[in-house]
Amino acid sequence: MPYKNLHILVLLREINDSRPPARVTARGAGISDRGLRRVPNPADLIALEEALRLKDSLGATVTALAVGPGRLDDTLRLAFSLGADRGIRFWDHGVEGGDAVADARCLARIVAILAPTLVFTGHRMQDRGDDPVPALAAATAGIPCITAAVSLALKQQGVEALRKSDRGGRQKVEAPFPCTVLFDEGETPRYPSIEAITRSLTAPIEEWDLADLGLPFREVGAIGARLATAEFGLPRPDPVRVVTPDPALPAFERILSLLSGGIKAREGKTHHLGAEETAAKLWEIFREEGLAQ
Q1: Which of the chain's termini has less CB crowding within 10 Å, N or C?
Q2: Are 153 and 160 in contact (CB under 8 A)?
Q3: Would you say residue 225 lies in a domain?
């Protein structure tokens, strides 16, 4: 059985629920946490469901990972109630204030320690869009990353995924083990049973910090949050001039005038002549345009 030691690491993140109204703090420095409800990211739950399906069919081991303060224990207990085998929460005050690159170093180190066969998580965060950390962590760890996946199939030495491409298309890609898969769509997450929820309340959650990862303080957090400077070019100050169309023109011609930026198309010439007369007329046009002597 080629998948008997299949180990899947699922990254679970939280989002801010849009239903309660957000309130600005008294000093206007940010959003108040009071009354703000946080829920698991839906795309991450889809990734967890894909991992649990592989567990049901192939006997894979599923580890749920959360990066954040103690309130994320509820998300890990939800993963336990759904069928996860292990729960890890990483948090250290030294990682506060970091950017995506600094956070990716921590995630890449966790992946290096656990050495999973597959890393699953969601492609997008519902409240703030794309999250570059998983892809950057995969690049730091030197493993391939498949984004916007909608389905997944295991091969002998890797995976084959169907992912979203431009303009609503679908693209089939392959990657060897180990690899990271970011799910954009998938099966609807299952509901936990009452017995599973009760068992999850006493499930052990491992708490990791920077000492467990062996990362120096200077490489993470606000100190390590330094994006590499790349070459860039400033745009040319050449704004597009849009000419106001003549209101006397028909609506269709006014629209064409706006789309063309006021540039009028060159007028064409139509001739209905015989073969010899057409050839003579073409030479005449070439001479007028300076294309022939």
Answers
A1: C
A2: yes
A3: no
